[in-house]
Amino acid sequence: MAKPLKIQEVENPTEPDYEVFLSFRGPDTRNDIADYLYTSLIDASIRAYRDDEELRVGEEIGPKLLQAIKQSKISIPIFSKNYAESKWCLMELVQMVECNKKWGQEILPIFYDVAPSEVRNQTGTYGKDIQSHKDKQLYTDETIQDWKAALNTVGKLTGWELKDRRKGEFTKDVVQELLIKLKRNYLTVSSLVEMDDQVNKIMEVIGEQTTETMIIGIYGMGGVGKTTLATIVYDKLLADFDHCCFLSNVRDTEIVSLQNQLISNVLRNKYLSITNIDEGVTEIKQRLSCKKVILVIDDVNHQTQLDALVGVGERRFGRGSKVIITTRNQELLKGVDFQLKLTGMDLDHSLKLFSRHAFRRDFPRAEYASLSNKAVRICSGLPLALKTIGSLLNGEGKEAWEAMLKQLETIPDQEVKRKLNISFEALTTQQKEIFLDVCCFFIGFDVRIVTHMWDSCKFFPGRSLVVLERRSLIEIREGNRLWVHDQLRDLGHDIVREKANLKPEEQSRVWDHKEAIDVLETEEGRKNVEAIRVRFDHQFQDLIEKEESVRLSNLRYLQVDCGGLDEGNVQHNPSTNWFQRNPIILPKLRWLSWQNFPIFFKFTKRSLKELVILDLSRSEITDEWEGWNDLKEAKNLKVLNLTGCRNLCRTPDFSDHENLEQLVLEKCSELVQVDRSIGKLKELVLLNLKYCRKLQMLPDEMEELEALRELLVDGTSITNIPEWKGMEKLETLSASDCRLLSKCNLAGCSTSLLYLDLSDSEISEFPSGNFGSLVELHLSGSNIQELPNSIEKMKNLKVLMILDCNLEKLPRAIGMLKKLEEINASMCDCLCGEIPSEIRNLSSLRILSLSDTGISNIPKLPESMTDLCLLGNQHMRCPDLSNLLNLRDLRLELRYQTPSHPAPSLDWIGSLTKLEHLCLGCGGLVTLPPDFNLLSKLRKLVLLGCNQERLPRLPQNLSYFEMRGCSISILNISYLERLSELEVSHCEQLIEIQGLERSKNLQSLRLERLPLLVKLPDLTGLNNLWRLRICKCPKLVEVRGQLESLESLGLMGCESLERLPDRLSFKHIEELNVSGCGKLEEIQGLEVSENLNALSVQNLPLLEKLPDLTNAKELEYLVLWHCPRLVEVRGRLKSLKTLSIHGCGSLRQFSDPSSLKKLQLLDIKECEELEEILESDEYRDWKKAGKLSAGSSVGRVLKSRRGDPV
């Protein structure tokens, strides 16, 4: 009788006792590959569990074995001919798959003497064995099906095939790859070094006053952990900033390139092109001065870098920006707000870091304790040395340790590079070549692209990269980007130079432009150089033009920066085939990167035969370009990048490039046709057609792209995605912003898709198919009305984005998506009724946003939630959120307008002790719970429409408090000592704000539409207040106090206002807006305002004069509207760019009109006397200024220039 096999359950695995679990069929492999592998793992200090399935009896997997499977980080089934004959092997395999699904445990199969397809499809002996189990009728159909599913799942995974390889070499490769995978699993950025104390020091200096601009400098010798510390602080602060930039490798990057990267990252504009440093400084000042930025400038070594990027002492970024500088030279940090010196780690932390890399745990193995302590002392507390040397010794025996430490002891402590060089010398020739390539050229590059060149050069990158990463000489970071520590990068540079006897012409790699020109001028240099980066300038052109031919016989990588090419460059050269007349011969060239490639150049065919990567992005090439014919010689081409080639209307014939793996045509704005020959690209993995706006159709031959994994068609004009049955490997399909896309058939690729984006399209029905592998689904802005019940098959889905679409309900099957982490269904107007109660089953859900929907009822939510946004209508009932103890960010806005919906009870809110941000808006809410002040971690609080007459005591750690539309009459903030921002608006009953004068940390104060507010306390003590905005407080008579830090002041619509703050408050003022204050007769203090940049004075009927503005040397914008008594504007306004004067009928004179040399925009209306005198010679320069275009306004000009206007 068939019976189910029993498996004893264990809890979620804790810290693994084993690192690797081996599953194998004893008679097939015990005395063969299994024994080789197990012994090699133990010798490499990898904790491995080896199961002998033949020794077991009974019908159950016991708890010890089950624990071994579940607590291992990696499981390795060794598939041999008779593996499926063993029920135990099959049971183990089912458990591996279960652990993979539940906890992400990795499975790496070895295909010993069978093909993956036999395992996957149960053919050959596997099919016979499964049928045999079935025929015996000892096991249920469900058990048999579980076995088949597990075989199918694992058979699809990437692993190792033995085939005809020698077992010793094969085992060695497996162990090497396991070592790097186990190391990656163990280490994280935050755990690389124990830096809590240093992080805390910086965070304490920054404090919670995020509105204060600050520059922080971190200095210390190379390898001490400066970059790591900056990264940790950057990551901690990132959430508070809309604009961010991390400039790494500053030492070796040209300043103009750094400026381009800074501006592009902050403005999210990929293709800005700064051509010189001065232009870059101007652009940074103009574009970023109103942006709140978090910026890291890593490894600065020249003052010119800081002058060009941040200008220490200047204000180039918006209020609240944070700049972190790392350098080895403390002298460069003069003028920064805070300096921190990093020194070596103490012995305890050093031993911990060393052990993590040498043993993959926090302490050494007992038999290596003495040797480990010795190694730690040699490393002198330097994290990089501890990491690199620990990695070098990982898996080695005692003899190797002793020999290595003996060699290290001979090197003085201060000679860090010599110690690191030992790791370099231990590499093979190919590994050294790759390491030096990365150090000199490829930091930040996608390793998947660079690998093509190394493969072509037979550097064996697969294994070499594993060794380099295992030994901590390189890292492969997020996005598959290569990274090398700056100390190791410098080591690589020094090795290249020393090997060449410090002679550039003997160097194999040249990365400096000046040296590159020198090298290219000598025959010896042309012969020796293998990789070079050069600028396309007149020096380079002259050098090539004067030669009959240039032969670079060993060059494999050529990068030409053509960013400065202009009409002058073009005219300097003949318009004929330049390379044909003066050919450059590059017989070994593998990679040509020449953005803005000049079309009058011509390849030589001999230079293309070995080419594998070609980047001609942003070039002027066309369909008729002669180079297409020459490119047919590049039979081995793997990567072709034509991004931004705006004159390209049709792609070339791809018939000669059947090895192509990546084709990038992004932002080819005129592209209308992809050639049908694309179907011949059987190896194509990536096709990028993003923002080819005129592309309306994809060829039918796309179906033949059987290797394609990533298809990007965002922003195109395609109308249909047909069923491509051949794309069985497609993992990413991104078709966002395809406004005409209405049909999409994904049946052919649904099982393999991991990422699907159909947002902002016309898709109205979700495509059919089995999307069991899908991880992210984006449907925002589409016409989708419902999600199918088949969504239950999306067992791997983590992100569901359905904003602003026509969705009417969420299916109950959504509760089956155990891995779902984020749902955003905001702005779905048609989404009504109740959220399915099954949502409580989503144990991984962290983020839920349901703003502006028709949802009426929220069920109990899972305790895993950390971020929740509920903005409801009058029908939504307030949920009980008392179980959400992990909630950090809550936005709850509900409307109660009918008797059937009384004001909600929020008694549960005090239990949410982890809350950091809270926005509460519940119409009709009369009371807040008394334990509200117990939310000790709350930093930001927004109260909207609260009807309570007096607030309870608020959490005293608040740094931001906003109150809008509330009914209280007195607001007491005297106890909120950490408050830095206060906004109070639309509170019609408010008559007094108590304790305002005690808010010593207050930096920003906004008061708006407070009709009963009569007075404010003296604000003299608010030494940190830099922004003050008071709007439409009609009974307010005066603003008292001396505000010496004030930079931005706005007083609008205060009809009773008679007195401004003390004149010394204007000393540092940058922006001043005074309007609609009918009783104000004068504005005193502007005569001392040296930093004033923008002045707007409007609707002041009693104002007769302004102070002399001569000292306002930075004044660029001046607006004077409807001041009928104003007679004269005094002062030399040398920096003024925009002048707008309306309705000032008495104004007849500027004391020095000739000083307005920089005037660019002039806007004068309803000023009869002034318009008359404009005809005089004295005002002739004004006529050169442009007029504001119709429909524009000075307010809009000011806002675009200065950001948030006061």
Automatic annotation (TrEMBL):
SMART domains according to UniProt: TIR
Keyword Methyltransferase in annotation: no
Span list, region Disordered: 1186-1206
Domain TIR: 16-178
Pfam families in the record: NB-ARC, TIR, WHD_ROQ1
InterPro entries xrefs: Apaf_helical, Disease_R_plants, Leu-rich_rpt, LRR_dom_sf, NB-ARC, P-loop_NTPase, TIR_dom, Toll_tir_struct_dom_sf
GO molecular-function terms, A-Z: ADP binding
Keywords recorded for this protein, A-Z: Leucine-rich repeat, NAD, Plant defense, Repeat
GO biological process: defense response; signal transduction
PANTHER family: DISEASE RESISTANCE PROTEIN (TIR-NBS CLASS)-RELATED (PTHR11017:SF570), LEUCINE-RICH REPEAT-CONTAINING PROTEIN (PTHR11017)
Protein name (Swiss-Prot/TrEMBL): TIR domain-containing protein
Upper classification of the organism: Eukaryota, Viridiplantae, Streptophyta, Embryophyta, Tracheophyta
